[in-house]
Write a structure and sequence with these properties.
Largest sheet: 6 strands, mixed
Structural class: alpha+beta
Strand content: 25-35%
CATH topology of the largest domain: Rossmann fold
CATH class of the largest domain: Alpha Beta
Number of domains: 2
CATH superfamily of the largest domain: P-loop containing nucleotide triphosphate hydrolases
CATH architecture of the largest domain: 3-Layer(aba) Sandwich
Order of helices and strands: EEEHEEEHHHEHEHEEHHEEEEEEEEEE
Distance between the termini: 57 Å
Length: 374
């Protein structure tokens, strides 16, 4: 096929993936970061990071841009050599002060953010590119099987420029899994997709990862994506790990105020803790033991403010409301609280500006941190 030929296979449903359960399985490996430090231009891109990726586990490295996530991924892949610390695969050192195993000998796959497909190669040749140890016919057969799993078989003779972003992502995934890596490293693999497509693609990608059984380290700045994909989330900030836990642990028990803010919006109310309690307009809020008798910030997720028919619930007045379909975002003024609070109220009804409504507080969405924490 001519690389300049823009033809796309007719009658191909590019939204359909191959049958689940048909991806080739691999032998997963344990990946260990042992006190990794890496400095760029005098700044610690990664600072004393230790993390253990178990066999077949999916960990999402989550954090803002520039926090060190991609650097850590490149060190694991062997693209960068750590300046301090060690990388181990199944307990065997592959990078450290006295040893460095090149990327091609680690059986670690890397899926780039921009997919990095070769424009001059057909889709089939792109997927088969890393299968140098196999003869040409076997490599083509393995590549076709991977393309079938991601639903891109009909495009094997096409070239990357004729594919949409979602289709290129699927080809990149096929190329990443076809060598059957023990560890798969994925750098923001869904960031270039629109929201509707992103949800379906990451759902299918998760299914493929589970089928292969490979251990996976996935970089993202999207907390919803991390909670959907991960067995555990490793939250990074300024080159350091600040919290590692299951999605439920990091969402329900954030270690600090910045981690809490990263996962959702908050209403933040300055208060004072006395005698193990914090007096608020909604009633007393329990104080963490470490913050007894101190100035604190009470943080309330918008979904923690719920509409109530109880006369004991706090009365507020609607300043503004926006309809979102299954819920409404409502700005409410309360007596005794200086600033208006934002609430996400479930249901299809939307209160009108000026309405009086009663609101109760769900303590599962309330967090307390020391005043002045950043």
């Amino acid at each position: 096929m001519n690389p300049l030929d823009d033809s796309i296979p007719e009658n191909q449903d590019s939204s359909s993936w191959g049958p689940r359960g048909s991806a080739a399985a691999t032998f997963p490996a344990r990946l260990t970061f042992d006190h990794i430090t890496h400095v760029f231009k005098g700044v610690d891109a990664v600072n004393d990071v230790s993390l253990d990726l178990a066999l077949g586990e999916i960990i999402c490295l989550l954090g803002p841009s520039g926090c060190g996530k991609t650097t850590l991924l490149r060190i694991a892949a062997g693209v960068e050599r750590p300046q301090k610390g060690r990388i181990l695969l199944n307990g065997e050192e592959v990078a450290g002060p006295n040893i460095f195993v090149p990327p091609e000998k680690r059986n670690v796959g890397l899926m780039f953010q921009d997919f990095a497909l070769f424009p001059h190669l057909s889709i089939l040749d792109n997927v088969a590119f890393g299968l140098n140890a196999l003869d040409q016919a076997t490599a083509a057969s393995e590549a076709r099987a991977a393309l079938r799993r991601v639903g891109m078989s009909a495009y094997e003779k096409a070239y990357p420029h004729v594919l949409s972003g979602g289709e290129q992502q699927r080809v990149a995934l096929a190329r990443a899994i076809v060598p059957r890596p023990s560890v798969l490293l994925m750098d923001e693999p869904f960031s270039g997709l629109d929201q509707r497509l992103r949800e379906s693609v990451r759902d299918e990608t998760l299914s493929v990862l589970r089928e292969t059984g490979a251990s996976c380290l996935l970089v993202t700045h999207d907390p919803a994506e991390a909670m959907w994909m991960a067995d555990r989330i490793a939250v990074m900030r300024s080159g350091q790990l600040v919290q590692v836990g299951t999605p439920q642990q990091v969402y329900c028990h954030p270690v600090d105020i910045d981690t809490a803010r990263f996962f959702s919006e908050f209403n933040e109310i300055p208060c004072v803790s006395r005698g193990g309690k914090i007096a608020t307009a909604f009633g007393n809020v329990p104080t963490p033991a470490r913050l007894s008798d101190a100035a604190v910030t009470v943080m309330i997720r918008p979904q923690g403010l719920t509409r109530s028919k109880s006369k004991s619930a706090l009365e507020g007045f609607v300043l503004d409301a926006r309809y979102l379909g299954d819920a409404s975002v409502v700005k409410i003024a309360f007596e005794g609280i200086e600033q208006p609070l934002m609430a996400h109220l479930a249901g299809t009804g939307i209160p009108a500006k000026g309405d009086s409504i009663r609101i109760s507080l769900d303590l599962d969405h309330v967090f307390v941190f020391a005043a002045g924490d950043t």
